[in-house]
Structure formats: C-alpha cells, structure tokens
Amino acid sequence: MSTTLKYLRALSDPTRLRIMALLERDELSVNELQEITRMGQSRISTHLGLLLDSGLVESRREGKRTFYKLSPQSDGAAGEFVQLAIRGARELPEQAGDQINLRRILGRRREQAQVYFNQVAGRFDRVYGPGRSWQAFGHLLLRIVPPLIVADLGSGEGLLSELLARRCKKVIAVDNSEKIVAFGAAKARKNNLKNLEFRLGDLQNPPVEAQSVDLVILSQALHHAEEPARAVAGAYRMLRPGGQIMILDLARHKFEKAHELYGDRWPGFAESDLQRWLEEAGFKKTEISVVAREEQPPHFETILASGQK
Ligand SMILES: C[S@@+](CC[C@H](N)C(=O)[O-])C[C@H]1O[C@@H](n2cnc3c(N)ncnc32)[C@H](O)[C@@H]1O
C-alpha cells in the first residue's frame, strides 16, 4: 500500500483525528487518553493500533504503562498529514472538551511531581534521590579546582589522590605502608594517571621538597601521627607562599576501640588543638568546623581545618 494511502486510511476516522490532536502537546498513556476522551479502553487501543501501524504514532514502555506520541516526522508528507489531522480535529464538536481535559491531566502530572517534593521537603537531603551522590558532587566540585600541585599525606591507596589527579597538575601521595604504596602505585598505573606519584615516607617528615606544593591534604591521617604538631609544621614548610593546608580528621571521641580496630594513635582532636598547631606552624586565615556527623553510634564527627601560608 502506498504511504499516502496508509496515512489517509489511518486518519479517516474522527476518534483518530482527536487522538492525533491530543498527542500534539505531549505523550499520553491509554488510561490518560481514556480519561480525556471518555472512551473505553478497547476502543482507544484499537485506534492507537491503527495509528501505530501507519507510522504516524509511536510508543514507549515505562514499567507497566505504555506511552504514545507523534512520530518524529522523517518525511515532509507525514508532517503534512499530521497538520491536516490536527486541523481536522478542530472541526469536531469534542475538540473543546478534549483540550480542557488534556490541560487537567497534564496539570495533574506536574502536581504529582510537586506532591513528591512537598512530601520530602525538610528531609530531602537525607532521602535517596536517583543519581544523587557525594561521589557525583565531588566530581562537580573538582571541575572548579585549578590545576594545583598537591601532597596527600597518609594517602592510603589513593581514594582522594586519584580523584584529584584527574584535575590537578600533579599529586604526590605519601604513605608509610610499603604495601599500600605498592598497591596505590599499581592502581594509578592501571588507571593511566601519570601525574599521580606514590612515595613511601612518614607524614611527619615527608619526602617532598620545601616550598614545592600548592595544597597539603591530611585526610584521616593526622590521628595516626605520633606528633601531629610536627606534621602540621612540616606541611607549612613544603607549601609555596599562599598555599593551603586542608585537614580532615575526627573530632575528639570516646570510642576506645578505635585504637585496636583502626590502629588510631589519637582519639580524634579538639578544634582548639588543631587551631593551636596551625597557628604555631605559621598558618593564617584558619577555619575550623565540624562538617559531618555519622548517624550510627558512636556518631563520629569529622572536622575540616584549613589555613593559608
Ligand atoms: C585512615 S587511612 C586514610 C587514608 C586516606 N587519606 C583517606 O582519607 O582515605 C590512614 C593512612 O595513613 C597511613 N599512615 C599512618 N601513619 C602514617 C605516618 N606516620 N606517615 C605516613 N602515613 C601514615 C596509613 O598507612 C593509612 O594508609
């Protein structure tokens, strides 16, 4: 059958013209079309079947529902027929009622989305949201980081170092565990991160030249150091003028098992300890605050302390 004849046959019925005009605004499900046109499901489905066969309409499944929409008009002829159908629908007595019902249905869809957000308002940041994660936020924030040279002291296997290396000019990851350094270096090679260098060393006296880096990070590492103040002073030495130190560590806690479970030397720190060490080392513009609190006992709190050389 010729394409023209196929289109003509598909549109030779007032209900199908009405459906075409309704689908012009948005995709609709069978239920929605039923509600708008006040017709039974089998009638609507039969008409939709014929429109699908003609190629003027297409469908997509979402869970248990199927949505119908006008096909993207690949050839000029299809476009002309679609316009003809919409004009034809305007001549029908049902047109005004259809359009009112359509607006109501589309309005209800918008409200349903709003109802959800109204329900979760106030706890939205704590509920699951598809695609929302700290990892994704981390990547977003990384895009605004300039191309720095970074020293990550007590780096572990490089969770943070690897992330930074994707953006920074160079990242030097220092750790005193031979096995961790070997593992981290192999992982960096595997991930082709040529600007991430692992070095074996002590964070209190790291193998990093004086005045050579823009940023020193100590993430959950300072509480392992025998002399934390010495580590902070060492960080000052390796920073260029204007460079920054960022310390993420635990707030002082009473969870005694941390020593045995995690090998911790200190039970976290008071904000005043960190403030004193930063100032004694020579840092200016210091900022210290609790940035996270775990929901599960023993409710560890994380402090972020920073300063500038
Ligand atoms: C809790 S992990 C933190 C790893 C990483 N910074 C992070 O935030 O995921 C502590 C790391 O510090 C290392 N470490 C402990 N004492 C150290 C020291 N004196 N000098 C260098 N690294 C040390 C450990 O080997 C371990 O990899």
Structure description:
- This protein has twelve helices and ten strands.
- With 309 residues, it is an alpha/beta fold.
- The protein starts with a helix and ends with a strand.
- The model has no long low-confidence stretch (mean pLDDT 93).
- Helix 10 (228-238) links the parallel strand 7 (213-219) and strand 8.
- A seven-stranded mixed beta sheet has the order 6-5-4-7-8-10-9, with helices on both faces.
- Bound molecules: S-adenosylmethionine.
- The site of S-adenosylmethionine has 17 residues, from helix 8.
Strand content: 15-25%
What summary fits the major beta sheet?
7 strands, mixed
Radius of gyration based on Cα positions = 32 Å
Provide the list of bound ligands, each named once: S-adenosylmethionine
Residue share in helix: 40-55%
- Tell me the series of helices and strands, N- to C-terminal: HHEHHEEHHHEHEHEEHEHHEE
Q: What's the pLDDT, averaged over the residues?
A: 93
Determine the structural class based on helices, strands and strand pairing. alpha/beta
What is the first-to-last residue Cα distance? 80 Å
The total count of helices amounts to 12
How do the strands line up in the largest sheet?
6-5-4-7-8-10-9
Shape: elongated
